[in-house]
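User: Can you help me understand a structure? I only have the sequence.
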Amino acid sequence: MNLIKAKEGEEYIIKEILTDDEELTSFLFSLGCYSGEPITVVSHLKGGCVVSIKDGRYNIDTDLAKSISI
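Assistant: Let's start by predicting it. Here is the structure, written out as tokens:
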């Protein structure tokens, strides 16, 4: 399952990042988004969703949310 299908307010564990783009992978890693890390969907928006990773909140687009497997 990916972040698009996640319920708001529930904490999930990231299983893997499904992308071949090294730049995208390193960007997500810099946010603290990597395998084994807890992530919470704060809210779903028309163009993506707001997620909470560690102590930060980030607005990510739909394509990025689809590449994060939980």
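Now, to help you interpret it: The two ends are 6 Å apart (CA to CA). The helical segments are 22-31, 62-66. Let me know which part you'd like to focus on.
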